[in-house]
From TrEMBL:
PANTHER family: SLL1037 PROTEIN
Pfam family, one: NMT1_3
Segment forming the signal sequence: none
Coiled-coil regions listed in the entry: none
Species: Streptomyces liliifuscus
PROSITE patterns for this protein: TAT
UniProt name for this protein: TAXI family TRAP transporter solute-binding subunit
Length: 330
């Protein structure tokens, strides 16, 4: 790979340019029917500013409001998956992006002792767990982090919970063997530059702008995580968790290419009482406007595979989404 892959190009190649044009026109045609389409306000919990959850959420909001002018989408930045599920539970959000692994935990675990009812609109993309240290660090594996301060992601993020499991899988006790901080990504990057944090973990698309800046100066080393995968399973092991081995793309960062890490699928979820018309509209958007929903700096094949949208693990699709998928694909 000579440079960043344009995911829009890949999607056009996969679907066929003519098919994409026809499908895009079909979504526009939905708004010209006699039925006025869904209306109201949709509160969308995303993620940290400048990260991929927020970027994807804003693209969805823009496309949704263009296709359905009577629907207003308010994007809310948050710490991430755990906070987003709490917002859905407390009826302070209508729609959210979450790691599949965290959505599974919301069905009743120590993280969410009382199950949170969720439905999925679709599996939208795959993020990469990126555990980094400075390039001049002696640390070359997670097991080498004993005595080193790490940031495992902001409190309320899916990465924070996964990060503790990663340390345990490497034989380390968070807070005892490894001093742990939970910093927002921008603060963690500043702390790494200052030397007060030796490593940071983030779950996100590649490349992440914050990590790209760190890779330029002071330089980064990406720790391999795939070997820890068998020990990361929750109550049902890896079944339905959305965790799998992936390889960082060669063009993502200067020296990360080929590092085997863990991929985590991401779901667009809602409460079960989301109106069917809204679920239908969202589903059609994901299918028919896939190429418009990819942040500009995405590389590789991590985004919105039309064929895998229904692969939502143990989280059932919303009935409105089911009807839309059947209408579009038979």
């Amino acid at each position: 790979m000579n440079g960043p892959v344009d995911r829009r190009t890949l999607l056009h190649a996969a679907l066929g340019t003519a098919a994409v044009a026809v499908l895009g026109g079909a979504l526009t045609a939905d708004t010209s029917r006699q039925r006025p389409g869904p209306s109201g306000v949709l509160r969308f919990a995303t993620g940290e500013p400048t990260a991929f959850y927020e970027a994807f959420g804003r693209l969805v909001a823009t496309e949704l409001e263009t296709a359905y002018p009577r629907l207003s989408c308010r994007v809310r930045t948050t710490a991430g998956s755990v906070t987003n599920i709490e917002l859905l539970r407390d009826r302070r959000a209508d729609l959210a992006l979450v790691l599949t692994d965290t959505a599974q935990a919301a069905q009743g675990t120590a993280l969410f002792p009382h199950p949170v009812p969720l439905c999925a609109i679709g599996r939208v993309y795959e993020t990469y767990l990126q555990f980094v240290v400075r390039a001049d660090s002696p640390v070359r594996a997670v097991s080498d982090l004993a005595g080193h301060t790490v940031s495992l992601g902001a409190t309320g993020s899916g990465a924070a919970e996964l990060g503790e499991r990663i340390l345990h899988a490497a034989g380390l006790s968070p807070g005892t063997d490894v001093p742990v901080r939970h910093l927002p990504l921008a603060d963690a990057a500043d702390a790494m530059r200052a030397g007060s944090v030796d490593a940071l973990l983030v779950a996100g698309g590649v490349p992440l702008p914050v990590l790209t800046e760190l890779d330029d100066s002071p330089g980064l080393r990406f720790l391999p995580l795939a070997g820890l995968l068998p020990r990361l399973g929750g109550r049902d092991g890896l079944a339905g968790s959305g965790l799998e081995e992936v390889t960082l793309p060669q063009s993502a960062y200067r020296t990360a290419g080929g590092v085997a890490t863990v991929g985590v699928s991401n779901l667009l979820v809602c409460r079960p009482d989301l109106p069917r018309a809204v679920a239908d509209a969202l589903t059609r958007l994901l299918v028919l406007r896939a190429t418009a929903l990819v942040p500009d700096n995405a590389v590789g094949t991590q985004f919105l595979d039309v064929g895998s949208l229904i692969g939502t693990g143990g989280i059932a699709l919303h009935p409105g989404a089911v009807a839309a998928y059947r209408s579009l694909h038979g």
